């Protein structure tokens, strides 16, 4: 047993978090910034933060993750990090020549009170930001929120560059939230099927799923360009996916440029995708093409074909709020029973929403925001489940309790596929369902005795 | 394509020219600093040329380095399985150091193993404003109530030092209150020092202060050693222990792969300290010598020949015929299998070129294995080393202590009144030294590298890419952050921090694993697939069109 010290008896903990279901804001800011074309993320703090974020993102994507740091020393921590950041701007623009530097703070620079916009102003005045280059700033202290809110803060920082010419450009802003590069690609495919001219911001496809060709570019082809970011102010509407990831930026665009905003759930599973397509249809004033109807029908078809294998199966889930909300809804929609659900990200709204989704189930769902995997494990010990859906850290629980595991979320450190195969939309729904079925049926095949073992399922 | 041998490659380039190309892009100040951290190796009468090391990382230059917390919690203390490691700070620091270093662990018969857990006080804004001491004390209590560990180690992250939480007082009070649980703390805020190295030092000091010497219950064994600076990545420590066991050597404590609280507490009972990673742990070796009279020697169990050499060094120290014979028998028994594999692999690796930039010792140790494979090291360097790791301990008296190093505590150690016992008399030591055993001695990396090679401290992203572009090595070794940008260039990359998913590479069986792994990497077919057929021969399709 790898988690042998986890007792089944639950004692309320007020101070210690054990086996977290979240990490800190700056890594989210770094991930979002990688979705801007020609952008080098910059971590304003100790160099360890940057090293840890780069390592974690690299292990998840198996791709180069480039980012710079202010490399604070004790002196900088006492006297402020302005000198370090100014020096960093100069070095970065000279050596790496990005179009944009996206700076985020850390607990260190926030605690000492470094003011990024003020430092940027000084840098501009001193000519440390060359003509035509940009510096984005997001405040992401690690002691607030989680990696999810850090992502949101950097997307909001992007909106600062939005402009309005007074003339609408006919485009729809899509704020995809923290989804995989493959998901961003899939969203763009759906938009193109529907004939919608859109700006996806940020967009890590083409950045974190690049081909191996013998050439390396620090700034690959993908990413939302600064021109696109500027144009978000002229869009006809914003569709923001996921309240935690995308609402803030959508509201900012609405406030600054009166771009009407629609904050909807991330399009995972049947119903959330239905709402996504329906929202797109109405904001862009287009009709839904038959190709999308077919994809929807295929997902419904697989649900009906395999319904008996998922019916009333109990599921434990850990992950991020926006993902979990849609996933829980998907599970309920196919008659599975989500039983225990934790996110590390704070937000009572999360618990309320999950309870609403699970309201008609014949049991009281266990749900906690600001929870951790230790609590989830204890819940599982007290109420066994048939399936666990979580990031890679869930494999320790899965092994100890002998539960099938579907890896979904961040980070996935031990399996491949998430950067290439989407889980958004109807096609993504097919993949999610396939993964769930494979996990359950592999287990059935493993456990069935010789008499029950069957060829055709 | 013409095959260029390693020797030709070395002749083809001028190190001065390469160095100039590496730094030409930098602003003048940066170029001046980097010029002093890039050394063209020479064999001088007195060792090697001077290199600047253990200096601040340049803001904005994409570095391989991590922080002091990573060095303290991640590297040194992390692998100890029966101590609960509680990180006091916002959630990230504890999350990122959770199971990511591949220190293998065997929970043993007692079953106590907290390696799979991640503990954090998850500081919130209110803790930063009002202080986190109460929350820390409460967290310690909650852990104790849940799990009753024998020890809880507290690690400070950046904001803790800034807001002035007194973690040491909290630890002391909780230790008293709990009674049967040792609680101690590490002021290893990430901003201290210039790299992970400061964290090693802080870890060494506290483990010496709070744990070493706590257990006087005698440990059995005729030849008792400690293995310092071996972290059991991919099971290295298990392989070394297997060999020790065959030789009849008792390893009291490994610092710190698969270690336990009791091993540290009993370490003062050993009769010899064997130092693997000089950078991370030489402080403990020195302190153990001063307080308890245990001498130390540098060893290296990376490489089959190096392993044999290190075992013989231990035998010579104990100066015991029985041990010597047993060790020779083990070497004679283990080497044939190693040689058999090497014979098979070497024709495919001979003459290939490699660069390695990792750690504070590995960039040196692994050159042994590459030599065995007949591969040539074109360039090497450390991420967080000091000058003595490059130039040898002879330069120690001449290293200037700068402001960043001065901030890291040096503890004064005195001989233990009751337990100080020189393991060898001055006469015996003299005899051993005359016989060629060098105590407290490390030559460093540079003297082991050929003249004309580039020794580079704190290599960064730009220089790594440039080196690969200019020198086209057959293999590049560094860490996870460097891995994929190098591989995108079509050059295989081996992680020498985490070994990717491989190992062990130490000892005899480890050498075999490493030979096979390097063979796989440098001879993989994948590197020939960079171009599609139509990219290789674009004119062919034109001919068809014309025809």
Q: How do the strands and helices of this protein lay out in sequence?
A:
The complex is a heterodimer of chains A (457) and B (547).
Chain A: E1 17-18, H1 25-33, E2 39-44, H2 47-61, E3 68-69, H3 74-79, H4 82-95, E4 100-105, H5 107-111, H6 116-125, E5 134-138, H7 147-159, E6 172-175, H8 181-193, E7 198-200, H9 226-231, E8 237-241, H10 243-257, E9 261-264, H11 270-284, H12 290-310, E10 314-319, H13 321-333, E11 337-343, H14 348-357, E12 366-368, H15 373-382, E13 387-390, H16 395-401, E14 405-407, H17 425-447
Parallel strand pairs in A: 2-3, 2-4, 4-5, 6-7, 6-8, 8-9, 10-11, 10-13, 11-12, 13-14
Helix pairs in contact in A: 1-2, 1-7, 4-6, 7-10, 12-17, 13-14
Chain B: H1 6-12, H2 15-23, H3 28-37, E1 38-40, H4 68-77, E2 83-88, H5 91-96, E3 119-120, H6 125-130, H7 133-147, E4 151-156, H8 158-163, H9 167-178, E5 182-186, H10 196-210, E6 223-230, H11 236-247, E7 249-256, H12 261-266, E8 272-275, H13 278-292, E9 296-298, H14 304-318, H15 321-349, E10 353-357, H16 362-372, E11 376-381, H17 387-391, H18 403-406, H19 426-434, E12 454-456, H20 461-471, E13 475-478, H21 480-488, E14 493-495, H22 507-522, H23 533-536, H24 538-546
Task: Give the beta-strand count of chain B.
Answer: 14
Largest sheet of chain A: 5 strands, parallel
Structural class of chain A: alpha/beta
Strand order of the largest sheet of chain A: 12-11-10-13-14
**Helix proportion of chain B:** 40-55%
- Class based on secondary structure composition and strand pairing of chain B: alpha/beta
Question: How many β-strand stretches of chain A?
Answer: 14
């Amino acid at each position: 047993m790898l988690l042998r010290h986890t007792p089944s008896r639950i004692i309320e903990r007020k101070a210690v978090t054990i086996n977290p279901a979240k990490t800190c804001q700056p890594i989210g800011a770094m991930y979002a910034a990688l979705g801007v074309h020609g952008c080098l993320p910059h971590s304003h703090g100790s160099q360890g933060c940057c090293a840890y974020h780069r390592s974690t993102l690299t292990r998840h994507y198996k791709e180069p993750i480039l980012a710079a740091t202010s490399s604070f020393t004790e002196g900088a921590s006492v006297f402020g990090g302005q000198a370090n950041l100014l020096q960093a701007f100069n070095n970065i623009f000279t050596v790496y020549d990005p179009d944009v530097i996206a700076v985020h703070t850390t607990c260190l620079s926030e605690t000492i009170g470094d003011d990024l916009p003020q430092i940027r102003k000084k840098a501009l005045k001193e000519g440390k930001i060359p003509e035509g280059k940009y510096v984005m700033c997001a405040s992401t202290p690690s002691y607030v929120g989680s990696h999810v809110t850090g992502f949101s803060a950097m997307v909001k920082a992007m909106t600062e560059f939005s402009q309005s010419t007074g003339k609408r450009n006919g485009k729809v802003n899509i704020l995809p939230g923290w989804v995989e590069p493959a998901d961003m690609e899939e969203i763009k495919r759906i938009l193109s099927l529907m004939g919608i001219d859109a700006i996806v911001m940020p967009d890590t496809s083409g950045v974190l799923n690049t081909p191996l060709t013998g050439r390396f570019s620090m700034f690959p082809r993908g990413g939302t360009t600064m021109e696109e970011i500027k144009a978000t102010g002229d869009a006809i509407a914003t569709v923001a996916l996921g309240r935690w990831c995308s609402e803030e930026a959508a509201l900012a665009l609405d406030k600054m440029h009166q771009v009407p905003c629609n904050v909807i759930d991330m399009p995972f599973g049947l119903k959330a995708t239905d709402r996504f397509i329906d929202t797109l249809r109405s904001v862009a004033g287009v009709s839904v093409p038959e190709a999308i109807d077919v994809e929807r029908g295929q997902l419904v078809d697989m649900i009906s074909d395999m319904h008996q294998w998922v019916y009333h199966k109990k599921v434990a889930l850990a992950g991020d709020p926006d993902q979990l909300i849609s996933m829980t809804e998907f599970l309920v929609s196919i008659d599975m029973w989500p039983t225990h659900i934790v996110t590390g990200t704070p937000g009572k709204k999360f618990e309320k929403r999950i309870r609403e989704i699970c309201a008609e189930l014949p049991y009281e769902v266990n749900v906690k925001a600001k929870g951790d995997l230790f609590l989830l494990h204890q819940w599982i010990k007290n109420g066994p489940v048939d399936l666990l859906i979580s990031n890679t850290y869930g494999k320790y629980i899965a092994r100890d309790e002998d539960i099938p595991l579907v890896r979904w979320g961040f980070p996935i450190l031990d399996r491949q596929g998430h950067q290439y195969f989407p889980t958004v939309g109807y096609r993504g729904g097919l993949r999610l369902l396939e993964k769930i079925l494979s996990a359950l049926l592999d287990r059935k095949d493993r456990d069935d005795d010789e008499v029950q073992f069957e060829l055709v399922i | 394509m013409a095959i260029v041998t390693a020797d030709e490659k070395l002749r083809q380039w001028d190190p001065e020219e390469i160095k100039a190309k590496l730094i030409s892009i930098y602003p003048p100040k940066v170029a001046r600093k980097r010029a002093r951290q890039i050394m063209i190796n020479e064999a001088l009468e007195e060792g090697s040329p001077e290199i600047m090391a253990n200096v601040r990382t340049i803001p904005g230059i994409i570095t391989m380095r991590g922080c002091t917390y990573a060095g303290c919690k991640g590297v040194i203390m992390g692998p100890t399985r029966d101590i609960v490691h509680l990180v006091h700070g916002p959630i990230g620091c504890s999350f990122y150091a959770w199971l990511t270093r591949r220190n293998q662990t065997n929970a043993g018969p007692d079953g106590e193993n907290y390696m799979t857990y991640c503990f954090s006080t998850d500081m919130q804004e209110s803790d930063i404003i009002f202080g986190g001491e109460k929350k820390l004390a409460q967290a310690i209590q909650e852990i104790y109530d849940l799990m009753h560990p024998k020890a809880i180690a507290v690690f400070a992250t950046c904001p803790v030092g800034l807001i002035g939480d007194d973690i040491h007082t909290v630890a002391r009070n909780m230790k008293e209150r709990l009674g049967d649980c040792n609680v101690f703390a590490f002021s290893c805020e990430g901003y201290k020092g210039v790299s992970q190295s400061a964290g090693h030092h802080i870890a060494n000091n506290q483990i010496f202060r709070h744990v070493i010497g706590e257990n006087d219950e005698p440990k059995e064994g005729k030849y008792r050693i400690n293995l310092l600076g071996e972290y059991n990545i991919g099971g290295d420590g298990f392989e070394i222990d297997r060999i020790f066991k065959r030789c009849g050597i008792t390893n009291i404590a490994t610092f710190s792969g698969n270690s336990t609280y009791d091993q540290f507490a009993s370490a003062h009972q050993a009769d010899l300290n064997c130092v693997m990673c000089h950078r991370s742990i030489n402080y403990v070796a020195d302190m153990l010598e001063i307080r308890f009279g245990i001498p130390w020697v540098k060893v290296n169990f990376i490489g089959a020949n190096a392993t044999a050499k290190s075992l013989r060094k231990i035998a010579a120290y104990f100066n015991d015929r029985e041990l010597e014979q047993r060790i020779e028998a083990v070497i004679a028994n283990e080497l044939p299998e190693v040689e058999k594999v090497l014979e098979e692999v070497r024709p495919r690796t001979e003459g290939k070129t490699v660069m390695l930039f990792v750690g504070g010792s590995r960039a040196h140790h692994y050159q042994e294995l590459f030599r065995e494979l007949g591969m040539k090291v074109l360039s090497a360097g450390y991420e967080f080393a000091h000058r003595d790791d490059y130039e040898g301990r002879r330069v120690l008296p001449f290293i200037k202590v700068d402001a960043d190093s001065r901030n890291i505590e040096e503890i004064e150690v005195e001989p233990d009144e009751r337990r100080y016992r020189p393991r060898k008399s001055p006469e015996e030591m003299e005899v051993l030294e005359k016989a060629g055993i060098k105590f407290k001695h490390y030559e460093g990396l540079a003297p082991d590298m050929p003249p004309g090679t580039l020794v580079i401290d704190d290599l960064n992203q730009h220089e790594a890419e440039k080196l690969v572009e200019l020198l086209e090595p057959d293999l590049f070794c560094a860490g996870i952050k460097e891995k994929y940008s190098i591989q995108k260039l079509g050059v295989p990359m081996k992680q020498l921090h985490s070994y990717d998913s491989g190992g062990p590479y130490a000892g005899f069986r480890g050498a075999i694993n490493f030979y096979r792994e390097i063979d796989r990497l440098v001879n993989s077919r994948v590197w020939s697939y960079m171009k599609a057929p139509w990219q290789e021969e674009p004119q062919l399709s034109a001919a068809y069109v014309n025809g």
